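Could you help me review a protein record that somebody else here produced? Here is the record exactly as it was handed to me:
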Amino acid sequence: MEELQHNGLITDPKTKQIYIDKFGKNLISGVDYQVYISSKHGSGSGSYKVSEVAVTGQNMTLLIDFLVGDFEMGSAVMNQRILFFKTEPGCKIVDVITTKKTSNHKHISGTNGYYYTT
């Protein structure tokens, strides 16, 4: 698979449609989707889980956790994930904050940069 040229929440409608057309073959036609592309990470294992949603009017901020279990094996190659969030018409996601949780520490990243906490 080719390297994805974008990272984070895709806000440009044309770019968003390119990712929906190319990678969203199983999405429901005629439904509004927001597209988020993760930064590169070396864990092929793990999963994303929405842990918190903050709503202000019709704008949403999502907190999503990338969870890697103690006994999950991942690949050493760098990879990215594309997440499709189904939204109601007129609503939009304005920020996605991600955390990567492992047994020893937590990484936090968002649109304001990348932070590390223990």
